[in-house]
Amino acid sequence: MKKNSWFLSFCMFMFTILLLGCQEEVQPETAQDNAPLTERSGAHGRAGAVTPEFTFTALRGGQVPFRFFPYGPFTQLSIDWGDGTQEVINGEPMEGISHSYAATGEYAVRIVGDLGNIGVLSFYEDGPTREINLEHLPSLQNFSMHNVSTPRILDFRQNPFIAFIDVSRTDVQNMLFSANAPLTLVNILDNSRYSEKGFQDLIHQAYRSATNNRIDYGGLYIGLQATYELIAPLTPRSKAELRVLRDIFQWDIYPNNF
């Protein structure tokens, strides 16, 4: 049966919001919240160094404002949109954070502030990016980039709590994780260009997550919906690991014809 990737994204978001409400706040590793932004240099506001900061390159190609969605118990974020505009966000923005650019191009977006309490981060059709640096989001649990232009590689090695990922219908070809990342639900549906090595590594990471952390009833959505085929071939090891996830830990695997 086909999976509705939008529904999966919604379920991942709601489940993580519940988790965030039940957990203690995780404090940032540094005490530079609300630090002033430094002077910019280069085209479209290419930024000088500020630490810690969350950064990404926004792609502006149409009339729709760029928008993204950070959630968690943070109090304030200061944003440099890369076009000379700076903005302060107080409290959690339930409708997301948006900005209108005057001209088409690439813009280096820099965010400082209460980064340590961002647990959910999402980009959809109106939030295309070329690169993203997640290093200073230590509490990140839920990450979504759905049906949008994205970087080819996502690095979660500095996000030790990452558990729910939806990068379906994107340009993502590989993801990097810390050894003990507690992956619980990962959706790469219809990413036909996902690399074979990245595909095998993702299955192995999910297997290690389930076996090391005793995670039952997870989900792994790794197919092409139009053909009900896996995105890449299975090795003997990855096939055995998928069967353990499906048959022992009761994970929902799509497709499951292996």
From TrEMBL:
Cite the entry's keywords alphabetically: Signal
Q: Which residues form the signal peptide?
A: 1-20
The name of this protein is: PKD domain-containing protein
